[in-house]
Design goal:
5 helices; alpha/beta
């Protein structure tokens, strides 16, 4: 994991429409903002490097983005003793739409601005 971005955005790895919306939004934001996407799946699979990388977030600016009320990304951060600087819960989606992606982008962008100071 590169440590060049100023903010890490930890995202859920689910398949709900909300999770797909947030992943599309975050992918687009990587072209516009100084962020790095961190997915939780490798750490959940207990891959040693991924677990070390997740622990390394303890001293970084982290935004947690979840796509449903399950809060998987936040639960994984808690497991690795990472306290996020901001938490974004994407509103419920029943399908992936451009409007949903744009709305999610704005919510995440607002958190980025708040964390950036």
């Amino acid at each position: 994991m590169s440590q060049t971005s100023s903010i890490d955005v930890v995202i859920c790895s689910g398949f709900s429409p909300g999770a797909r919306v947030l992943r599309a939004a975050v992918r687009e934001l990587t072209k516009e903002e100084d962020i790095r996407i961190v997915t939780i799946a490798p750490a959940l699979a207990e891959l040693p490097k991924a677990m070390d990388d997740m622990r390394s977030l303890q001293m970084r600016k982290v935004i947690c983005v979840d796509g449903c009320e399950g809060g998987c990304a936040l639960q994984v951060l808690n497991r690795f003793d990472v306290l996020p600087s901001a938490i974004v819960m994407i509103e419920k989606h029943f399908n992936v739409t451009r409007k949903g992606i744009d709305t999610a982008k704005e919510s995440i962008r607002q958190a980025i601005r708040e964390v950036s100071g």
